[in-house]
From TrEMBL:
UniProt-annotated catalytic positions: D707, E716
Molecular function per GO: cellulase activity
Recorded family membership: Belongs to the glycosyl hydrolase 9 (cellulase E) family.
Organism: Actinoplanes campanulatus
Residue ranges constituting the Glycoside hydrolase family domain according to the UniProt record: 272-727
A single BP term in Gene Ontology: cellulose catabolic process
Catalysed reaction equations from the record: Endohydrolysis of (1->4)-beta-D-glucosidic linkages in cellulose, lichenin and cereal beta-D-glucans
Protein name: Endoglucanase
Length: 736
């Protein structure tokens, strides 16, 4: 121990308060690590990756070899650590890195297969620094491990560690998010002639005065707040502020009420034009199978991922999971789903649908320049981008002559989960095709049918190929209507399980009808139980729930389906339901999940519910839908309980540490943050990941979120979520 040379820095995930006097009594604090001060040699610590532990000045040091791929390729650790589920631990150590700037992945996890990680932090090292974290164990085991993973650097470096400690029986952290001023606004912008609402968090139950100020401090509008009582979604006592009568263009405005001044915001036309493009540009840096060019995305260049170059196993000839099939498929290309390297047909399907639907119904989307390799080829960029995924979706269809021909594999991903960070081209895991499913098959039927009508003017051969694939898929699904992807298939990738496919059947039949006009598809549309059902519940549509997508396309694409006016009326009634929810909601959110249990990816659900309101506006032309749409937008950009914009790069305080293996700046400063225009999943009441479970236990609705890269259940990015954002913002930019 060398206390005299410690630069004391308490590194924590975020600001935290340790419960003080009021804390209940805890079990005695017990040290779990043996010889953590290295006072008696190095045992029982081990080192791998060809490293030898040297003791220097009472510290353990290793020369880390350069040129390894993964963090875990070189590590020091100690096994046989006891962990007890529900018990809170303080994990601390002193560490240094020479040269400075290297990252250690400090973990507590399982020392045997499947090597689960229970807690991890990845500080960037320099001179000897004390690091200290608190977490609550989610699992009991006698085979726990404390380890310092130091691999993954191209160059060699030296790592030293001392005073390794894991103490059990400590009080749990009380996490308090920094929510800034209590006046909550859309931190990006309001439109001059649109509605303008804000929310005040206060203990007052009576109306309070508010003032709107310019950047120079001049008061330009005044009024009084409307008390709204306790907001169910956050548990806060709130008032609303309506400053819609102020219609002048301005930047840097602020709202003041109850002694608090909001974060700055603008009132200006065209405020969402850039985001319209940015939200779509994300797809290029999510591409698999192609090099990402620095001239097109400065700071985001990377080699092509999964193209059969080591250490990748490649997607050029991917076998099935054992026993599932005896062929391989070339499934290169497509978009990586999210922060992982998996590619899933049902999520690709809804994402492609939403981009193609934007293309079909929003004429302005056709001229948006996405600065992609295909830009300038006379095909609208949005179609070029969507085709990158469509070709992948088509490649997942079982070829003629094989068992299950015409059906579509549900997904392709790594055999086991990988850690963060990990650039796509460095993923060493074997890739596997998972079984076919009815839902995946119908996703291909729906989107390939949609593609057939939209790409025809640009590439008739592709359109014909897509239509043939769609017909084949649809017939194969009808012959195999109950092949469901199970929830249990979640190792190395997400399950995307779905055992209700009447909605996918309806969607596929609708798209095939819209493209071909054929009676047999019309018959299936009209016979579907979804056709007359009210499908506009708390979640209008997403990867698992697709009937609303069909209804919106039927309502908006010219066609001769009998009784079409009833479909249009359903969409408009759905929008009315979301407006009714929004009116009740003091943050203006048209989403009220049952029992206030916020879904995984709530930001995208809120955005998609607004897409239904946009469809009603398109159908009716009525201002009430435009106003509701614009009011609903504010939540995403900061008018919310956490005072955060869920879109990277937009709003003064915005989510920018979304869970990703390659936009992983929070773990490795040499990597970028997610690109501007990336939507975070947002509050998820079920908090499935350890970071959220540790810090957000017992959270209420809107508070179930943390902008931490390891919080994959509250803060991931995903192709379908950005599709919702892109479609919504495309509408705002073009039609509002
Ligand atoms: O977005 C998906 C969410 O609706 C599901 O509840 C969740 C669990 O099945 O999975 C989410 O999708 C993840 C996928 O399984 C793997 N890639 C990342 C996706 C977003 O977190």
């Amino acid at each position: 121990m060398h206390l005299w040379e410690r630069s004391l820095k308490i590194a924590t995930v975020t600001a935290l308060v340790i419960a003080g006097a009021a804390a209940p009594a805890y079990a005695e604090e017990v040290e779990q690590v043996v010889n953590g001060g290295f006072d008696n040699g190095a045992d029982p610590f081990w080192a791998n990756g060809g490293m030898t532990i040297e003791l220097v000045d009472g510290r353990a040091c290793v020369d880390v070899p350069g040129g390894t791929t993964n963090r875990w390729d070189a590590a020091i650790g100690q096994n046989d650590i006891d962990l007890v589920a529900g018990e809170t631990y303080r994990f601390s150590f002193d560490a240094s890195g020479d040269p400075a700037g290297h990252v250690v992945r400090a973990i507590t996890g399982l020392s045997v297969s499947p090597y689960d990680t229970y807690f991890e932090q990845s500080p960037v090292l320099g001179g000897l620094t004390h690091y200290e974290y608190t977490f609550t164990a989610s699992t009991s085991t006698a085979q726990g491990q404390v380890a310092f993973q130091v691999g993954g650097s191209p160059d060699p470096w030296r790592f030293c560690v001392d005073d390794v400690s894991l103490v059990g029986g400590v009080p749990p952290e009380v996490y308090e998010p920094d929510t800034g001023p209590r006046v909550r606004v859309n931190q990006v912008a309001y439109l001059p002639d649109g509605p303008k609402g804000a929310t005040l968090v206060t203990s007052s139950t009576t109306a309070l005065p508010w003032e709107l100020r310019t950047a120079a401090g001049a008061v330009v509008a005044r009024g009084t707040t409307t008390p709204r009582g306790t907001d169910v979604s956050s548990g806060q006592n709130v008032h609303t502020i309506d400053f819609g009568r102020f219609r002048k263009n301005a930047t840097g405005l602020t709202l003041t009420a109850d002694g608090e001044t909001s974060r700055p915001f603008d009132i200006k036309p065209g405020a969402y034009d850039k985001l319209r493009t940015d939200a779509l540009k994300l797809y290029y840096t999510q591409r698999s199978g192609i090099e990402i060019r620095d001239d097109l995305r400065p700071g985001y260049a990377r080699p092509a991922g999964h193209v059969d170059v080591a250490p990748n196993r490649g997607d050029g000839a991917v076998p099935c999971q054992p026993g599932v099939c005896d062929y391989t498929l070339d499934v290169r290309g497509g978009w990586y789903d999210a922060g992982d390297h998996g590619k899933y047909v049902v999520n690709g399907g809804i994402s492609v649908w939403e981009l193609l639907s934007e293309y079909e119904h929003n004429k302005g989307s056709r001229k948006v320049n996405l600065t992609i390799p295909e830009s300038g080829n006379r095909v609208p960029d949005i179609l070029d981008e969507a085709r990158w995924e469509l070709e992948f979706l088509l490649s997942m269809q079982v070829p003629a002559g094989k068992p299950n021909a015409g059906l579509v594999h549900h997904k392709i991903h790594d055999q086991a989960w990988t850690g963060l960070p990990l650039l796509p081209h460095l993923d060493p895991q074997p890739r596997e095709l998972h079984p076919v499913s009815t839902a995946a098959t119908l996703n291909v039927a729906a989107t390939a049918a949609q593609a057939a009508r939209l790409y025809k003017p640009f590439d008739a051969a592709f359109a014909a190929r897509a239509l043939a694939a769609a017909r084949t898929a649809y017939d194969a699904a009808k012959a195999n209507p109950a092949l469901y992807a199970p929830v249990s298939d979640g190792t190395g990738g997400g399950p995307y399980n779905d055992d209700k496919v009447t909605d996918e059947f309806y969607w596929a039949a609708a798209e095939l009808y819209l493209t071909t006009g054929e009676k047999r598809y019309a018959t299936d549309v009209l016979a579907s139980p979804e056709h007359t059902a009210d499908v506009f519940g708390p979640v209008a549509f997403d990867w698992a729930v697709t009937a609303a997508a069909a209804k919106m396309d039927l309502a908006l694409t010219p066609n001769r389906l009998p009784g079409l006016s009833a479909v249009k009326a359903q969409v408009v009634n759905g929008a009315e339901e979301y407006l009714a929810v929004q009116r009740q909601h003091p943050y203006g959110v048209g989403y009220a999940p049952t029992n206030n249990v916020w879904d995984w990816g709530s930001s995208s659900i809120i955005a998609n519910n607004l897409v239904v309101i946009a469809a009603a506006h398109r159908i009716t032309g009525k201002d009430r839908y435009r106003d509701g749409l614009l009011t609903g937008l504010d939540y995403l950009f900061g008018r919310n309980a956490l005072n955060i914009s869920y879109v990277t790069g937009y709003g003064e305080v915005n989510a920018n540490n979304q869970h990703s293996r390659w936009y992983a700046a929070q773990l490795d400063p040499s990597l970028p943050h997610p690109p501007a225009g990336t939507l975070s999943g947002g509050p998820n009441s079920s908090i499935q990941d350890p970071v959220a479970q540790n810090l957000l236990k017992g959270c209420t609705g809107q508070f179930c979120f943390i902008d931490d890269i390891q919080s994959w259940s509250t803060n991931e990015l995903t192709i379908n979520w950005n599709a919702a954002l892109a479609h919504l913002i495309g509408y705002v930019a073009e039609d509002c």
